[in-house]
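Quick one, probably user error.
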């Protein structure tokens, strides 16, 4: 059986691909914040000043704020400096 060597460097994204991904993430965050601003008056009206329903309130807040928080963390982490080093699995003989 012949040893087949795989060039794992072809699987690593290029700096341009990483930058494009960062821009898409930032655009998605901008749309999410825009939606959040447009619907915040409905949230105040129905959730914060309305009748308290524990289950629906918790579900709403989780669905509303978790994507916003995770998008902020993702964009912030994507903007951090990247290392030149790549993790390439060891080849077994």
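Nope, works fine. Designed sequence:
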């Amino acid at each position: 059986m012949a040893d087949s060597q795989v060039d794992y460097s072809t699987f690593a994204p290029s700096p341009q691909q990483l930058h494009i991904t960062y821009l898409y993430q930032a655009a998605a965050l901008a749309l999410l914040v825009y939606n959040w601003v447009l619907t915040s008056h409905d949230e105040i009206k129905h959730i914060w000043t309305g009748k308290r329903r524990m289950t629906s309130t918790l579900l709403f807040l989780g669905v509303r704020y978790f994507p916003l928080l995770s998008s902020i963390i993702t964009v912030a982490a994507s903007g951090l400096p990247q290392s030149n080093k790549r993790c390439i699995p060891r080849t077994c003989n």
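DSSP finds two helices and no strands in the chain.
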